[in-house]
UniProtKB/TrEMBL annotation:
Known catalytic reactions: L-glutamine + H2O = L-glutamate + NH4(+); beta-D-GlcNAc-(1->4)-Mur2Ac(oyl-L-Ala-gamma-D-Glu-L-Lys-D-Ala-D-Ala)-di-trans,octa-cis-undecaprenyl diphosphate + L-glutamine + ATP + H2O = beta-D-GlcNAc-(1->4)-Mur2Ac(oyl-L-Ala-D-isoglutaminyl-L-Lys-D-Ala-D-Ala)-di-trans,octa-cis-undecaprenyl diphosphate + L-glutamate + ADP + phosphate + H(+)
Coiled coil (residue ranges): none
Family as reported in the entry's similarity comment: Belongs to the CobB/CobQ family. GatD subfamily.
Assembly, per entry: Forms a heterodimer with MurT.
Enzyme nomenclature, EC number: 6.3.5.13, 3.5.1.2
Listed InterPro entries: Class_I_gatase-like (IPR029062), GATase_3 (IPR011698), Lipid_II_synth_GatD (IPR043702)
Pathway: Cell wall biogenesis; peptidoglycan biosynthesis
UniProt: substrate binding residues: 127
Function, in words: The lipid II isoglutaminyl synthase complex catalyzes the formation of alpha-D-isoglutamine in the cell wall lipid II stem peptide. The GatD subunit catalyzes the hydrolysis of glutamine to glutamate and ammonia. The resulting ammonia molecule is channeled to the active site of MurT.
Protein name per the record: Lipid II isoglutaminyl synthase (glutamine-hydrolyzing) subunit GatD
Pfam families cross-referenced by the UniProt entry: GATase_3
Residues annotated as domain CobB/CobQ-like glutamine amidotransferase: 22-179
Length: 257
């Protein structure tokens, strides 16, 4: 029987924005589909299992990013190989930033990244806060953003979502009339990086299924990921509808630091 292995890196340090909820969303969908799974929570200095299907790296402040930096850098080859081989990965906020080529802080410090994502990150004085909606190939991704960073992509094809509401993480080429376009989410193979919190997966069944479908296909397992998930889908649909209604009302999207 196929067993899917999930590994969450540094949940005690990079897990401040509901990142455990992303892991639980993956677990719940696999359980409903009657797929055997195991989850490992990996702290600094602990070994990853020999086989990993899904890596989850959560969000945390700059202090936490510094705390895990050396350990994550030591795993760089393993993580790059995982992504290059089609393994699934979800990284959020600070965890996503560490997968870039590097992060520049407000005081000019450079924190080198793993280079899994061909992009750089600059911390900014403007904090982007509020609901966000991004249109992607698999439908709308909805959630909450709260970050003070700006991504610069080496190739705009790396961008996965176009912002319909909110601020997003990076600029995309402007429209013909000069109207600015913002992007949110990056994708390389089956690796996804985002600033969307909430956590993102429970709110977005389409994204959760996209990750798990890729994992099961890589394992050669044909799984119906919709079976038994009606209640989860209904809860997600209700929350998504409420958020889409709220974005048409009063709100805020930036805080000046």
């Amino acid at each position: 029987m196929t067993r899917i292995t999930i590994a969450q890196l540094y949940p005690d340090l990079l897990g401040v924005t509901g990142d455990r909820g992303n892991v639980r969303a993956l677990e719940a969908r696999l359980e409903l589909a009657d797929v055997n799974r195991v989850t490992h929570r990996i702290a600094v200095g602990e070994e990853l299992p020999d086989e990993v299907d899904i890596l989850v790296i959560g969000n945390g402040p700059l202090s936490a990013m510094r705390a895990v930096h050396a350990d994550l850098t030591a795993r760089a080859d393993r993580i790059r190989s995982h992504v290059e081989d089609g393994g699934a990965l979800l990284a959020v906020g600070g965890g996503a930033e560490l997968l870039s080529r590097g992060v520049t802080t407000l005081d000019g410090e450079r924190l080198d990244g793993l280079g899994v994502l061909d992009a750089t990150v600059a911390r900014t004085r403007t904090r982007k806060v509020g609901y966000i909606i991004a249109d992607t190939e698999i439908g709308r991704v909805i959630g909450f953003e709260d970050h003070a960073s700006e991504w610069t992509l080496a190739d705009h094809a790396l961008g996965y979502g176009r912002v319909a509401f909110g601020q997003g993480g990076f600029a995309l080429p402007a429209e013909a009339d000069g109207h600015p376009v913002r992007g949110e989410m990056l994708r390389v193979g089956n690796a996804f990086a985002t600033t969307i919190q909430g956590p993102v997966l429970p709110l977005n069944p389409g994204l959760t299924r996209e990750i798990l479908t890729a994992v099961c296909a890589r394992r050669g397992t044909d799984v119906d990921l919709t079976a038994g998930a009606e209640t989860l889908d209904a809860y997600a649909a209700g929350a998504r509808t409420a958020i889409e209604a709220l974005v048409h009302g009063k709100g805020f999207n930036t805080i000046q630091l």
